[in-house]
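haha ok so turns out i had the wrong file open the whole time. this is the CORRECT one, sorry everyone. sequence first:
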Amino acid sequence: MKMGKNQSKRSIWQLPFHLYIPLCMMGVGLFSAGCQPILNDEIPPSRMDARPEDARQTEQFRNALPPSVPEVAWSEPPPCEGPETTCARLLYRADTELRELIWSDTGITRETRSLADVPSGLTSFSPDFTRLVVQTPQGHTAGGPLFLYDLETAQLLNLNDYMGLPTYTSISALRVAGWHPDGQQVLLVNEDDEVFIWLDLADGSFQSLALGIDTGQMAPPRQFELAADGSGFTFVSHSRDTTNDNDQALNLYWYDLETEQSQLLLTVPAAQGRLGATAIAPNGEQLAYLLIRGDRKMGRSEELYLLDWPTAQSDSASRRLLLAGNLGPTQPVWSPDGTQIAFIRRNLTEPRRAAPDQPPPLGDVWTL
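then structure:
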């Protein structure tokens, strides 16, 4: 991981645009503007709007920010040039359409195909973008079945019926938490019912996973992230040492699919913040994660950390701070070569909402 000024490498923007979908949902913005991390004595007034009785908590939040934040210089993205060069692609579903944007040396082209025969719902693409799985809604009392759709053959398959997947009473039901790189195995989770399944599309089998977490002492696991090689996944839970919520500890675990064992990677006291999104490096040796401090009323800041995997200790000794600021609703995303991380950063001068009926601005996409 390189700190400081980015080099003008084509690889920065040759990432497939689909990698940025978790960052900005349906849209992608590439901007270059001034970016200054929030320091411990520079909390913007818009974030310091606590009520008078919250003054003490606000001061505690100010003191809780890291004493120093790495200085980061930003550079312009390189142009997309060269004969028959494709610099980036964005593939996403919009209702009954599959849309693709291609950025090449000739400009940006758009392609659209119909998905009218595919049920609506949360859609997850296979790594090679030849198939997709849809989690369908079903009323207000239960989630619907999973459907597998082959983009090449246009074949639609009800996975619950075909593979005998169990049905559950929670609204969330089963959803896709990650794909194995071979596109044949899928991690399915249902957090509300504490069900975790490793699904094999090749032979039509599935295996229920026991994470080894005592949910009597800990909250149900959340925030699943499958490693790029499909060898295992991370998840977050929290324990309670006392009945005081401030004494909770947020735990980050690694589950090895081969050994079927969970390993504690990181413990963060709730008083220091809460764990946000995580992203495992392509080589499986590092993990980027967000630590969220404060709240909207007291002032909020997000910190992007890097955890060295082989030497990870639950006491946070093996982590280092990369960036602090208002990173917005972001999930960090690694470049394929593992040298850069893409994320969203919000502009604090923008209003939270342009109008009451409009969503808040997501921010701009950056790489570090």
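Confidence is low (pLDDT under 50) at residues 1-65.
again sry for the mixup
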